[in-house]
Amino acid sequence: MIRIGVAGSGSGSNFQAILDAIEEDGLPVEVVCVISDHADAGILVKARRAGIPAHHVNPAPYRTKLDGEAERLAIRMFQEAGAECIVLAGFMLMIKSGLLRAFPNRVLNIHPSLLPAFPGLEAWKQAVDYGAKVSGCTVHFVDEGMDTGPIIVQKAVPVLPGDTPGDLHARILEQEHIAYPEALRWLAEGRLTLDGRRVQTPG
Ligand code: GAR
Which atom, in ligand 1's list, is nearest to the CA of 122? Predict the structure, then answer.
């Protein structure tokens, strides 16, 4: 069993998939705290509905990173809730060294492409615009770079002729909802080994 803190900026469908996996598949994870940089984010609504402490953290004066006072506040909230690991689920701010030092090798992210292709924003749109034939999602440990950390699991999906970015994103999200619980199960069961950039997994 591992206690996780979750950070997200959007609707929280990945967060919901984790809650469903706890409920329905016995995923040995407890969500102890959820934070969002958007006061009205769906992820906060979902957390409160599930009875999980949920907080808005205003990133000001920064707009693209969790730094300064907001970073200190987030770390304090996670630590006071007893989080052992931080799960970024659609969190759109860059993570800085303070959070990484507070949770060494224990910050995970999910990205909607097969990294290292298409890091950054709207990766599903980048894939369609580029003309990629295959895309997918990646669960990885977070390091100081943008979407550069050691890869835990990836799931591929086809990019079909005529796909809009939205079509592709929906197909990728289905796989995200499988990949994140899978990675978290391995982590919770102590079955992930980090060796430099390589992550050994049971899968
Ligand atoms: C997901 O597709 C996630 O991979 C992506 O945002 C979406 C959040 O959806 N994250 C990133 O692009 C991070 N750079 P959700 O709020 O429904 O889980």
Answer: 12
Q: Per-residue pLDDT tens for 174-199?
A: 999 999 999 999 999 999 999 999 99
Q: How confident is the model at residue 203 (pLDDT cuts 50, 70, 90)?
A: confident
Cα(1)–Cα(30) distance, rounded to whole angstroms?
Answer: 7
pTM given for the model: 0.98
> Is 10 near ligand 1, meaning CB less than 6 Å away?
yes
47 lines ligand 1 (CB under 6 A): no
CATH class as words, domain 2-191: alpha beta
Point out the ligand 1 atom lying closest to the alpha carbon of residue 137.
Answer: 4
d(CA 101, CA 10): 25
pLDDT in tens, 113-151: 999 999 999 999 999 999 999 999 999 999 999 999 999
175 lines ligand 1 (CB under 6 A): no
If you take atom 9 of ligand 1, which residue's CA is the nearest one? 90
Average pLDDT taken over every residue of the chain: 98
CB atoms within 10 A of CB 61: 9
Strands, DSSP E only, in the chain?
2-7, 29-36, 54-56, 65-66, 85-88, 94-95, 107-111, 134-141, 151-158, 193-195, 198-200
What backbone phi and psi angles, to 5 degrees, belong to 173?
Answer: -60, -40
